[in-house]
Design a protein that fits this description.
It is built from 11 helices and 15 strands. It is of the alpha+beta class and 394 residues long. The chain folds into 3 domains: 133 residues, Helix Hairpins; 85 residues, Urease metallochaperone UreE, N-terminal domain (HSP40/DNAj peptide-binding domain), CATH 2.60.260.20; 92 residues, Urease metallochaperone UreE, N-terminal domain (HSP40/DNAj peptide-binding domain). It is elongated, with a radius of gyration of 39 Å.
């Protein structure tokens, strides 16, 4: 049977209901409410340097750990009831003779076995993490799965319209051999001696502030095994590969990071899965560009079209061409707006198409064209273009 001396001298004398300031028959909601109130009032972060408050905080947390848990509370109430009837006297031990209930070879351990428990050690083990048999049966706490990062490269058009992509993911998961326990199948588990089954250890300078860190001995699993798993060498972790379908919404921008809740690595011991974060890379388009929710387009026009005016057909993405009216005297670089021909916005509407004219200068002129340009030069000779522009610049 497990060693119960610590429980007899310590736990057996504590009234957790009194610590929380609630009645023995208090509801679970009242117990939780009382705990939260006392925890806020006595938290070390709110009472730096106040040792009395710190001790009170630890006592409140200890009490709630027992009576705040339905199964533990039932065991604790049973234990208190037996104690009140004199069941835990000086001879609290197991089946070696004289102890509780007036001696006569009566064994408290035998009594608890008759009650359907595994002996006194098992009852204390259920309450406080002790007991050899309970240590082997303790369930590690559920843990959330890790978040997973992935990248999806899509076309310019798919970014505007939205697309469903297939992603091949490799993520951390529980080892398939040991199911995440870290122990060789068939070997005996024990409560981790370093964290005493908590799954974490307290790290800090010993002052008012401290933090909980994952126990390095058990990796947060609360249990250690006689032999490590031959596959994961005790880490409890492995890798899994899977394919999922991810919907990329319409209008997504290059470099956007999309969160898919619950699509990450699976959790341990019933814990929820992590999230998947997909970074979207949008391939450039040969003709169109993008500026926010608007598309951009460079439209080459000739000198005479810019000078005399013209109607130019320009393409739209995903639709038919539209006619752009270029007024006479349009300067190089002027931008025209074609409404409703841009990218899809979050509200389902569309941005605009911004068409910028680029006046093209021919690199070679045939005799007829040269003659026409020379005639134009002669006609403009009396109107110098840069008259007075650079005066006083030096």
């Amino acid at each position: 049977m497990a060693d119960t001396d610590g429980f007899r001298n310590d736990w057996a004398t504590k009234d957790f209901y009194q610590v929380l300031g609630v009645a023995k028959d208090a509801s679970a909601a009242d117990i939780k409410k009382a705990y939260r109130k006392l925890a806020r009032e006595n938290h070390p972060d709110s009472n730096p340097g106040n040792d009395a408050k710190h001790e009170k905080f630890k006592a409140v947390a200890e009490a709630y750990d027992v009576v705040g848990d339905e199964a533990k509370r039932a065991k604790y109430d049973e234990f208190r009831s037996l104690q009140a009837r004199g069941g835990f006297g000086a001879g609290m031990g197991g089946g070696t003779g004289g102890g509780g209930f007036g001696g006569g070879g009566f064994s408290m351990d035998d009594l608890l076995r008759d009650r359907g428990a595994g002996g006194l050690g098992d009852m204390f083990g259920d309450l406080f993490g002790g007991g050899q048999r309970t240590r082997g049966q303790q369930q590690p706490r559920a843990r959330r799965g890790a978040d997973v990062e992935s990248t999806a490269t899509i076309s310019f058009t798919d970014a505007l319209d939205g697309v469903t992509v297939s992603l091949r993911l490799t993520s951390d998961t529980a080892c398939a051999t040991c199911q995440g326990t870290g122990g060789k199948p068939g070997t005996r588990p024990h409560i981790c001696p370093q964290c005493d089954g908590a799954g974490f250890v307290v790290a800090g300078s010993g002052g008012a502030f401290s933090i909980n860190e994952t126990c390095p001995a058990c990796g947060g699993r609360q249990l250690v095994y006689d032999e490590a798993c031959p596959t994961c060498h005790g880490s409890g972790r492995g890798t899994s590969a899977r394919s999922i379908q991810a919907r990329i919404p319409a209008g997504v921008k290059d470099g956007a990071r999309i969160r898919l809740k619950g699509k990450g690595a699976p959790g341990d011991h019933g814990g929820p899965a992590g999230d998947l974060f997909v970074t979207v890379k949008v391939a450039p388009h040969r003709v169109f560009g993008r500026k926010g929710d608007n598309l951009t387009l460079d439209v080459p026009v000739s000198f005479d079209e810019a000078a005399l005016g013209a109607e130019v057909k320009i393409p739209t993405l995903g639709g038919g061409p539209v006619t752009l009216k270029v007024p006479a005297g349009t300067p190089n670089g002027r931008t025209f707006r074609v409404r409703g021909k841009g990218a899809t916005k979050r509200d389902g509407s569309r941005g605009d198409l911004l068409a910028t004219v680029e006046v093209q200068v021919p690199s070679h002129l045939d005799p007829t064209a040269r003659e026409a340009v020379e005639a134009y030069r002669a006609a403009m000779a009396g109107k110098p273009l840069r008259s007075g522009l650079f005066e006083g610049a030096s």
